[in-house]
UniProtKB/TrEMBL annotation:
<feature type="domain" description="Transposase IS200-like">
    <location>
        <begin position="1"/>
        <end position="91"/>
    </location>
</feature>
<dbReference type="Pfam" id="PF01797">
    <property type="entry name" value="Y1_Tnp"/>
</dbReference>
<dbReference type="InterPro" id="IPR036515">
    <property type="entry name" value="Transposase_17_sf"/>
</dbReference>
<protein>
    <recommendedName>
        <fullName>Transposase IS200-like domain-containing protein</fullName>
    </recommendedName>
</protein>
<dbReference type="InterPro" id="IPR002686">
    <property type="entry name" value="Transposase_17"/>
</dbReference>
């Protein structure tokens, strides 16, 4: 995730999640399209996870995707970063 963010000139400030979703706190410049960043994060992570975990390689094939096509992105420019970080840190780590 961090390498993809760096490719987009973004900073992955926090990463956490639950068994069925992930939370990423990303600082990014206005020139970055959120949809392109998210699609790249999902695509790269899907390829790497399938490569590392054989069960995923065979469970998701023939058009079935590892990640859902949807996502939520919110702007927190007005909220203190400490509050956002605390929320993300309190989430459980995703497990495969």
């Amino acid at each position: 995730m961090r390498a993809v963010c760096e490719d987009f000139e973004c900073e992955l400030a926090e990463f956490n999640g639950e068994t069925n979703h992930a939370h990423l706190l990303v600082n990014f410049p206005p020139k970055v399209a959120v949809s392109k960043l998210v699609n790249s994060l999902k695509g790269v992570s899907s390829r790497l996870l399938r490569k590392e975990f054989e069960d995923l390689r065979f469970a998701y094939w023939k058009g079935v995707r590892l990640w859902s096509g949807s996502y939520f992105a919110g702007s927190v420019g007005g909220a203190p970063i400490s509050v956002v970080r605390q929320y993300i840190e309190q989430q459980a780590r995703p497990s495969v």
